[in-house]
Specification:
The chain has helices spanning 19-29, 36-44, 88-102, 117-125; strands at 11-13, 48-55, 58-68, 71-79, 107-113, 129-140, 143-153. The longest helix is centred in the middle third of the chain and has 15 residues, at 88-102. β6 (129-140) and β7 (143-153) form a beta hairpin. The chain has a 7-stranded mixed sheet with strand order 1-2-3-4-5-7-6, sandwiched between helices. The protein has a single domain, classed as Gcn5-related N-acetyltransferase (GNAT) (Aminopeptidase), CATH 3.40.630. It starts with 10 loop residues before the first strand and ends in a 6-residue tail after the last strand. The chain is an alpha+beta fold and 159 residues long. The chain is globular.
Length: 159
């Protein structure tokens, strides 16, 4: 039997005790994973919002946001491979967008690998639009890959 994550359930603030599990998710999903120190730094920064989605209190996904003035930036999001395609990333992002609106943020930005078409489709479904390209932003093997810069304008957002 496959455990399911109910909408809105199992999302909580990331804690130091989650870093090992989050690092395992990061390593399993990213070509150039963040270090443990990077996650610990995010947890200690008051301008960062760090969340995990859990099943039986075990992290299966995470989201790291930076919030400065009226802008939110999605710095990192990942779902453990065994839990992908179940709407977990959508729930994490939707909750983050709802919180940004409630906190009078005007825009949410993110970068996504040009090759990650499924993530781009999800972001478009949530209201993000392409607003630029960062050339050679991501490392990929011996070379680099462009990042697609996307934004979601919230009420009263940037023009």
């Amino acid at each position: 039997m496959v455990a399911k994550v109910a909408p809105g359930d199992g999302i909580r603030a990331m804690e130091l005790e989650d870093v090992d599990a989050v690092l395992a998710i990061e390593s399993a999903t990213q070509l150039t994973p963040w270090s443990s120190a990077h996650f610990r730094d995010c947890l200690s920064n008051a301008n960062y919002l760090c969340q995990v989605a859990t099943v039986d209190d075990d992290p299966v996904a995470f989201l790291i946001l930076s919030r400065i003035l009226d802008e939110t930036h999605v710095l990192n999001i990942a779902v453990a491979p065994a839990w992908q395609r179940r709407g977990i990333a959508r729930r994490l992002l939707q909750q983050a967008l709802d919180a940004a609106r409630a906190d009078a943020m005007t825009v949410v930005y993110l970068e996504v690998r040009e090759s990650n078409q499924s993530a781009q489709a999800l972001y478009r479904q949530l209201g993000f639009e392409t607003c630029g390209v960062r050339k050679n932003y991501y490392r990929k093997g011996e070379g680099h890959e462009n990042a697609v810069l996307m934004q979601c304008l919230l009420s009263g957002g940037h023009k």
